[in-house]
């Protein structure tokens, strides 16, 4: 299987979002929160916890990003669940993982800057994206969070590729952590995502992690040059479809 590609995503008006998902299929949605006009009517779709979080954000830009991510998420999930966006009722685990109780649908959300990714599947899933940027603490973060193999590959990568390698490895780890739902309790320095350089790899979950998963399938997403993104799934889907949502007004 080739890497799913955000660059070749099918552009879809949100009103025409596909509302069905085969059990062996996975959908990845992307959109830009700058395109989202968060009207007061739309903001009323947010539940009490989302409204509380939105209200305490310090700047208009942060509010715009959060609202754009969560309203877009509600629109997409509503189309699969065939309910109104304000009726999407998701539960958040003690460690922060959102899920849809009573539904066979699994989802996971990631946002970086104004870019949002949402994975929707019939089995457990984690997704992560990061905007490529210079981080002054990059080397020390790599030393702290990467395995010996990952760290060696990071230090061997050409200077022009080091930022991409760093963030690709970071998103691989985060996507797996997000699938497991372990959040900050996961010992990411024990998780080796360097098993192979194929587009799809099976990655062993460290036996010390407090999870029922022994291995997951990890995929890099072919992304625009400013972005790294990865997807983790319980079982390899027969097909991954990527959609780019437009016309979010
Ligand atoms: C929770 C965590 C996974 C969020 O990741 P992030 O890159 O900061 O943020 P993202 O935009 O990708 O994801 C945020 C979304 O993930 C979801 N999420 C939050 N906690 C989650 C969890 N425990 N499991 C799965 N999904 C979670 C939410 O939908 C959240 O959206 P919201 O903040 O708008 O409500 C991350 O903060 C974390 O705990 N990481 C632990 C692993 C670690 O140490 N990583 C370091 C280097 S690899």
From TrEMBL:
A single cellular component GO annotation: cytosol
InterPro entries registered for this protein in UniProt: 4-PPantetheinyl_Trfase_dom, 4-PPantetheinyl_Trfase_dom_sf, P-Pant_transferase_sf
One record GO biological process: lysine biosynthetic process via aminoadipic acid
Signal peptide range in chain numbering: none
Entry EC number(s): 2.7.8.-
Domain 4'-phosphopantetheinyl transferase stretches: 125-204
Keywords: Transferase
Molecular functions (GO terms): holo-[acyl-carrier-protein] synthase activity; magnesium ion binding
PANTHER family tied to this protein: L-AMINOADIPATE-SEMIALDEHYDE DEHYDROGENASE-PHOSPHOPANTETHEINYL TRANSFERASE (PTHR12215:SF10), PHOSPHOPANTETHEINE TRANSFERASE (PTHR12215)
Family recorded in the similarity comment: Belongs to the P-Pant transferase superfamily. Gsp/Sfp/HetI/AcpT family.
Name of this chain's protein: 4'-phosphopantetheinyl transferase psf-1
Gene from which the chain derives: psf-1
């Amino acid at each position: 299987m080739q890497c799913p590609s955000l660059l070749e995503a099918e552009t879809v008006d949100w009103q025409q979002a596909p509302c069905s998902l085969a059990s062996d299929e996975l959908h990845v949605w992307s959109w830009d929160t700058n395109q989202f006009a968060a009207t007061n009517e739309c903001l009323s779709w947010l539940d009490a916890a989302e409204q509380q979080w939105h209200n305490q954000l310090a700047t208009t830009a942060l509010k715009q990003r959060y609202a754009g991510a969560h309203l877009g998420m509600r629109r997409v999930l509503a189309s699969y669940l065939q309910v109104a966006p304000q009726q999407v009722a998701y539960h958040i685990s003690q460690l922060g993982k959102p899920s849809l109780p009573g539904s066979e649908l699994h989802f996971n959300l990631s946002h970086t800057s104004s870019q949002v990714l949402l994975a929707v599947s019939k089995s457990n899933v984690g997704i992560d994206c990061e905007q490529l940027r210079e981080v002054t603490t990059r080397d020390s973060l790599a030393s702290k969070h990467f395995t010996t193999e990952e760290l060696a590959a990071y230090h061997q990568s050409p200077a022009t590729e080091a930022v991409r390698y760093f963030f690709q490895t970071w998103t691989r780890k985060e996507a797996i952590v997000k699938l497991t739902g372990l959040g900050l309790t996961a010992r990411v320095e024990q998780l080796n995502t360097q098993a192979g350089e194929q587009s799809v790899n099976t990655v062993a979950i460290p036996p010390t992690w407090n999870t029922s998963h022994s291995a997951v399938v990890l995929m890099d997403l072919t992304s625009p040059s400013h972005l790294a993104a990865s997807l983790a799934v319980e079982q390899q889907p027969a097909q991954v479809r990527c959609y780019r949502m437009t016309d979010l007004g």
